[in-house]
Fold these 3 entries.
Entry 1:
Amino acid sequence: EVQLVESGGASVQAGGSLRLSCAASGFTFDDYAIGWFRQAPGKEREGVSCMFDGDGSTSYADSVKGRFTISSDNAKNTVYLQMNSLKPEDTAVYYCAAVTELVAARRGQAPGDMIPGDVMDYWGKGTLVTVSE
């Protein structure tokens, strides 16, 4: 069974840092594109960051560029999202999602793209990040 499990969410003060983890089971991240998404209360889900495992290309939403970093440890089958200089507007439930690079390409995506959520096939249940003033 394919599963993605996020962890690392917490309540922090503005300016603080957190590292989210996304652990996969039932498949390996080889040849997958992995994305982090978030959804704040009353708002639509938005893409935060994306990584293509094949060439290691990454992409970021403008709102997090320079503050967030996506990375992976294939030996641990885990993808991370390092979040620095957190702001109250970063408060949201954060989800990781995955799709094979082959399927992503068939759906019009290329390495370096910020893959939309509707292209992703697998989703975790999310982890809550709360940033206070």
Entry 2:
Amino acid sequence: QVQLVESGGGLVQAGGSLRLSCAASGSAFSSYAMGWFRQAPGKERQLVAAISWAYISTYYSDSVKGRFTVSRDNAKNTVYLQMNSLKPEDTAVYYCAARTPKYGSSWLSSLGFEYDYWGQGTQVTVSS
């Protein structure tokens, strides 16, 4: 069983920055692809960034590309989401999720049900 704990959310003005962290328990963290999802009130959960297990590949949704950066430190079992130039529309609960390796499948999935472990979420609020 893997536990994921997010931190770093909060209230920030538009144009500001936040860095989210997601700490994972267990020794297999380095083998997981990690995703950051967000869900705003009344909207579906969406994948905004992801990183492959070996930090070879990253993914960003069009809405955050150029503003957000995903990274990971496998020695610390932690994945990060650096969020710059924040906009009010970035307001949401942000979740990190871990996807175990799946034979024959790409490391990347935007489908929440294809992730095996989830954090509890951290609120990000961007004021205008």
Entry 3:
Amino acid sequence: QVQLVESGGGLVQPGGSLRLSCAASGITLKLYTMNWYRQAPGKQRELVAFITTTANTNYADSVKGRFTISRDNAKNTVYLQMNSLKSEDTAVYYCNVRAQWGQGTQVTVSS
């Protein structure tokens, strides 16, 4: 049974940083492209970043230069480092691999 568990969300002031983690069980993450999505209230879920099996990465224009996706294959975990956070980054963040989703972690950027 595949499980993805996100953590690391919270309340942060504008300009602050957070690091999200997605720990997997029942699946070997290094064999798959991993995605981070987010969904803000009243909006559609959007792809934020992905990392391929060869560590190529891609980002939504709205987060480029501020967010970094990475993976630790030994820990079977994917990360999303988020810097220079803005209020518009407020959302529930989800990790995804193939058809599997985590439960999400809330990120709130507010002063």
